[in-house]
Amino acid sequence: MAMGADTVEYQIDGNPDYGHLKVDLDLGDRFIAEGGSMAWMSDGIQVNGRLLGGFLPALIRKLVGGESLFVGEYSHPIGGQVTFSPSAPGTIVYQRLSGSSLVLTGGSFMACSPGIRLKTRFGGLRSMFSGEGLFVIECSGHGDLFFNTFGALIERDLDGELTVDTGHVVAWEPTLQYRIQSMGGLKSTLLSGEGLAMRFSGSGKIYLQTRTMSSLASWLTPFG
Q1: Is 97 strand, coil or helix?
Q2: CA separation (Å) from 136 to 65, 158, 190?
Q3: Where are the domains of the chain?
Q4: Cα(224)–Cα(222) distance, rounded to whole angstroms?
Q5: pLDDT tens across 132-183, in order?
Q6: 183: nearest Cα among 198, 171, 173
Q7: What are phi and psi of 168, to 5 degrees?
Q8: How far is CA 61 from CA 13, 14, 58, 104, 136, in A?
């Protein structure tokens, strides 16, 4: 739970399998969450839909980043409670930013306090074949940031190099550099997106997930 002048009071239940976020809003508090993630809220909660960062950045996040076009801004005139659940079962991760930054892959952003800025960033031409989106989202500023994984969360403090399948990468600190490289033949890389990985180098924290949506979709295909 976190409290402070520029934070929200929150509680995360259900981790690591089915993370669920509860936020208590006092008078004057505002909270921003991914569109469609609200589960339930107390009477009197006010919700304003808006484009985060303007129309063009929001449209880019929707088309190539996997994020909703609109976000909801929640407030209450005297105080109330609102809860959120991500679409994919897994872990909700809390990160306090105090002038620092964190890079999220498309679909990982869940919610934040108003002091967090979201910026869409180009991931490189080769990322269009990775199956994980052409853009990433850089989060920076001062405040509370929440993102979610599909499956369990793995945190690693990297000092050196690490190669990760693109679907298992959730977030990383911008002190890490990366490049997307082929792990298989050229044909499989270009036609199916299989065999691509992100090779990270440097010093910083990286967040990984134990499951991927693409693998689940492939597993379910014979049963459709």
Answers
A1: strand
A2: 6, 20, 21
A3: 9-218
A4: 6
A5: 455 788 999 999 999 999 999 999 999 999 999 888 999 999 999 998 887 6
A6: 198
A7: -95, 0
A8: 28, 28, 5, 12, 8
> What are the CA-CA distances from residue 161 to residues 35, 124, 164, 205, 208 (Å)?
36, 19, 10, 12, 15
Integer Cα distance of 17 and 106 in angstroms: 20
Q: What is the CATH number of domain 9-218?
A: 3.60.160.10
Asked whether the beta carbons of 148 and 92 are under 8 A apart, the reply is yes
Gyration radius from the chain CA atoms: 18
Greater confidence, 201 or 195? Answer: 201
What sign does the dihedral 126-87-208-32 (CA atoms) show? positive
Of the candidates 102, 48, 98, 45, which has an alpha carbon nearest to the alpha carbon of residue 73? 48
